């Protein structure tokens, strides 16, 4: 064994002891903050805080969420649900990969176990009275999800940034608010 | 085996041994109590605890967190961000004296506590702006 290999081993030993570093920009605002904020926020009119909070809870139930926590003085509602993340096209591709792997004579062909199985969606809705406009409320929604594969391993961790998803929820909330106001 | 080879082999063994220690529970954490408190805490010249908490929630949402739980009475907010990594933060808002509110934040990324001052400084830069806007009644 030559000198270079010994030095490589020594460096590898030092590397093994290194701890994971904290990403430098972990708590810095990304440039897209304003765009994301506008996608996630709407202003709505309601006769009282109770009416809009009740409408918000009802719409979350409509969307099959469970309410995890509510902190009324801060207008915070946290809800979650677990649903199916099974995708036929993804599964087909992975089966094809496994077949190719087996034909190539490779062992341990198990790409299908990495197929998406279910996803856990967490949603926070913050409903606050607008300070300068009586009777108006600012509603901001943030959504994240974890997708698990067939072996129950977390495969994707992400925030949902799709504007259409938020728009659908706000449309539903407006309908729910209309119904709620009718009940009171 | 030359003397150099013997020395590097010995150093490698010591390094491997260092990594293979039994895993401590590390319940108390690794930071110095007073030092960490200073890094993680800011004082604000306001007595409006509710407004301060709203600013903290808005800041966390801007930073991509969802709120796991919030308690207005105890002034505690816990939030999670799912990204390439999982980051969890707990922020406490306490009335410190007759004129100031104290905000303390602590964060973890995965299995590591965030201990560097710069990361907390970044958080408080964002919170400072949110506090200013909230106290100016801008929403």
**Discrete helix count of chain B:** 4
Low-confidence segments of chain B: none
CATH topology call of the domain at 33-86 and 116-183 in chain A: TATA-Binding Protein
Q: What would CATH call the homologous superfamily of the domain at 33-86 and 116-183 in chain A?
A: Kinase associated domain 1, KA1
Assembly level: heterodimer
Biggest sheet record of chain B: 6 strands, antiparallel
Radius of gyration of chain B: 21 Å
Helix content of chain B: 40-55%
CATH topology of chain B: TATA-Binding Protein
**Strands of chain A, count:** 6
Distance linking N and C termini of chain A: 84 Å
**What top-tier CATH class of chain B fits best?**
Alpha Beta
CATH architecture label name of chain B: 2-Layer Sandwich
Instruction: Tell me the greatest interface.
Output: A-B, 50 and 52 residues
Q: Any guess at the CATH architecture of the domain at 33-86 and 116-183 in chain A? A: 2-Layer Sandwich
Quick synopsis:
In chain A, 40% of the residues lie in helices and 29% in strands. With 184 residues, chain A is an alpha+beta fold.
Ordered list of secondary-structure elements with their pairings:
The complex is a heterodimer of chains A (184) and B (139).
Chain A: H1 3-17, H2 33-40, E1 41-45, H3 49-62, E2 66-71, E3 76-84, H4 88-103, E4 116-129, E5 136-149, E6 154-159, H5 163-183
Chain B: H1 3-19, H2 33-40, E1 41-44, H3 49-62, E2 66-71, E3 76-82, E4 86-95, E5 101-109, E6 112-113, H4 117-135
């Amino acid at each position: 064994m030559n000198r270079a290999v010994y030095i490589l081993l020594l460096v590898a030993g030092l590397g093994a002891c290194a701890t994971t570093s904290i990403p430098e920009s972990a708590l810095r605002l990304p440039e897209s903050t304003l765009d994301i904020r506008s996608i996630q926020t709407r202003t709505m009119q309601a006769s009282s805080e109770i009416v809009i909070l009740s409408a918000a809870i009802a719409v979350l139930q409509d969307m099959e969420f469970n309410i995890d926590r509510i902190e009324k003085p801060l207008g915070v509602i946290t809800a979650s649900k677990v649903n199916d993340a099974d995708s036929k096209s993804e599964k087909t591709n992975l089966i094809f990969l496994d077949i190719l792997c087996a034909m190539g004579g490779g062992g341990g062909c198990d790409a299908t176990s990495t197929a998406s199985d279910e996803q856990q969606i967490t949603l926070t809705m913050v409903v606050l009275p607008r300070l300068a406009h009586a009777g108006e409320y600012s509603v901001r929604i943030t959504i994240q999800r974890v997708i698990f594969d067939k072996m129950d391993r977390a495969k994707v961790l992400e925030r949902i940034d799709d504007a259409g998803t938020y728009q659908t929820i706000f449309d539903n909330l407006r309908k729910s608010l209309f119904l709620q106001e009718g009940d009171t | 085996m030359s003397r150099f080879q013997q020395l590097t082999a010995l150093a490698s063994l010591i390094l491997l041994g260092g990594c293979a220690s039994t895993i401590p529970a590390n319940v108390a954490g690794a930071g110095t109590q007073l030092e960490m408190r200073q890094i993680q805490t800011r004082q604000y010249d306001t007595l409006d605890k509710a407004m301060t908490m709203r600013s903290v929630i808005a800041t966390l949402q801007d930073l991509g967190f969802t709120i796991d739980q919030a308690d207005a009475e105890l002034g505690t907010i816990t939030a999670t961000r799912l990204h390439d990594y999982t980051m969890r933060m707990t922020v406490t808002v306490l009335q410190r004296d007759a004129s100031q509110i104290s905000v303390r934040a602590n964060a973890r990324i995965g299995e590591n506590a965030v201990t560097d001052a710069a990361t907390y400084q970044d958080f408080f830069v964002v919170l400072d702006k949110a506090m200013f806007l909230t106290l100016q009644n801008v929403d």
